[in-house]
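Journal club side-thread
Mid-discussion, someone asked how the predicted structure for our own chain would compare to the paper's figures. Pasting it here so we can look after the session.
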Amino acid sequence: MRQNPDLILREIYGKNILMPIRFNEASNDPIYFNEVGALIWKLSDKAKNVTELLNLVCETYNLKIDSAEAVAVEGFIDQLIESKLIMM
C-alpha cells in the first residue's frame, strides 16, 4: 500500500489536514482527519495490505481484531482506498 503521492498530511493549529500538492483525481480540496484517520494515513506506507494496516492500527490502540471499533477502522480504510487517498 502507499499514500497518494498527490496529497500530503499536515498538522496546522492542532488539526490534521490532508492537502493536495497538485491536481489529482482523489481530491483537490483539503480533507480533515481526526487522530485515528491521520494515524491510518501515516501507517499506510508501512503496510503491505489492508489486513496488515488494520493490524497496525489495532496494535496501536490495543483493539481486538474482531471488535466493533476494528470493523469501523477497516471500513474507513476501504473508504480511503475507494477514494484513491490510499493506493494498493
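Post-session note: Helices lie at 35-43, 50-61, 68-82.
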